[in-house]
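=== RUN LOG ===
request id: a7f3
mode: sequence -> structure
chains: 1
length: 93
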Amino acid sequence: MGWVVIVNPFPCHTASHYSYLAALEFLSDIDNVALALARDGYLSESLEEVAGDVSLMKLPRNHNDTLQVLDSVFMSIILLVTVIMYILNIFVF
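=== RESULT ===
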C-alpha cells in the first residue's frame, strides 16, 4: 500500500482532498488485484499472456547526469514554494 504526504496550503479543503486520495488508492489497489488475477490465469489465457508481458516491462532509466540534477533542483524548488505558500496561508491570510 502506498502512502502520500501532502502539505496543503488551503486547510479548508483538506477533507475533500483526502477523499480523492483515498479513491485513487482504492483504484490502484483494484488495478493491482486485477493484474494479479490475470497473471495467475484466473481471467483468460490471452489476458494471462498480456499480464505476464506487462509484469516484465520496465521503464527506461535516465543516465543523463544533467537531467538527474535538474530533476532534484526542480523538486526542491516546488517543495520550497509549497512550504512558503503554507506558511503564508497560516500567518498572513
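=== NOTES ===
Residues 28 and 41 are 20 Å apart (CA to CA).
The chain is about 70% helix and 0% strand.
=== END ===
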